[in-house]
Structures are given as structure tokens and as C-alpha cells.
Amino acid sequence: MPALKNCIWLDGTAEEAADFYVSVFPNSARGITTRVLEGSPFPAPFPPGTALTVDFTLDGAAFQTLNGGPMFSPSEGVSFVIITKDQEETDYYWDALTADGGLEQPCGWLKDRFGVSWQVVPAEVDDMTASTDTAASLRAMNALITMTRIDLAAMQAAYRGD
């Protein structure tokens, strides 16, 4: 199978974003950085020496940021899902990714300060919302749609009917 890499198109913040993501996720590291060269076929709108691409891994998953310019921006059409083990881990990623200008959105979605969309979801949420107990699943879904950051205890209570 070929290797897969997620590429995030940015407008001048490729290195800053890669460094930020590597600082948030454990077992992560920067890799190769390709720079704009004098006479490069990819010079605009950045001067020589600017990062063109930055490769990095986030806990083993391959990513790349690309300083592509202002033609495209990240959107909710693509998001990265972080499956967390508990509320503490959910809160950690939520707080880190919404810091310094991130935007909270409904149902565990957020945009970080670079405009990249993430979903921060405790693993148990899928178990509750896909349960064969349809009444409990519906209660959990109804609780979920009222939340921005997912409150696992509140979802568990709704699922149980408390």
C-alpha cells in the first residue's frame, strides 16, 4: 500500500503550524522542510528561503503543511478527528487547539488558529450514539448537539436517562 500523508494548505504559516502541532501531540516530530529557492517555479507569493512544505508526524500519522498562498483556505470540508480516551484527554486537546485564536464549534468540532478543523471526541461517544438501544442513543445525540466541547459525563447521564 502506498504511504498516505495529509497536506494542509496554508498562507505563510507552514512552519509555525507544523511546530505548533508537533508541540501538541505526543510522539511527534518535524521532518523535511522544502524551501522556496531563487528562481523556483513556486516563488510567489513568498521570498526565497521561506518554507514551501514542512513534513511532520503526529503520533505516527504523516502530515505536511504547504505555504501555497491565499488561493485556498482550510475549511470544515476536511477535518482531523482525535479520538480521546477520557475527559481529561479531551480537555487537553480542546484547550491546546483552541488557544490563541481558535474557534469552538458545535458537537466537538473546532478550528485552530490556522483555520484547520478538528473533531475532539471521546471514544465512548461513538459507542453511545451507535448503540442498539435506540432510545439511549437518541438521548445521547440530543445531549451532543447542545455541546461545543464534549462533556462526557453529561453524555453518559443522558445515555442512561438520568
TrEMBL record:
Keyword flag Methyltransferase: yes
A biological process from GO: methylation
UniProt-recorded Gene Ontology molecular function terms: methyltransferase activity
Domain of life: Bacteria
Cited Pfam families: 3-dmu-9_3-mt (PF06983)
Transmembrane segments annotated in the record for this chain: none
Keywords: Methyltransferase, Transferase, Ubiquinone
Domain PhnB-like: 5-121
Protein name (Swiss-Prot/TrEMBL): Glyoxalase superfamily enzyme, possibly 3-demethylubiquinone-9 3-methyltransferase
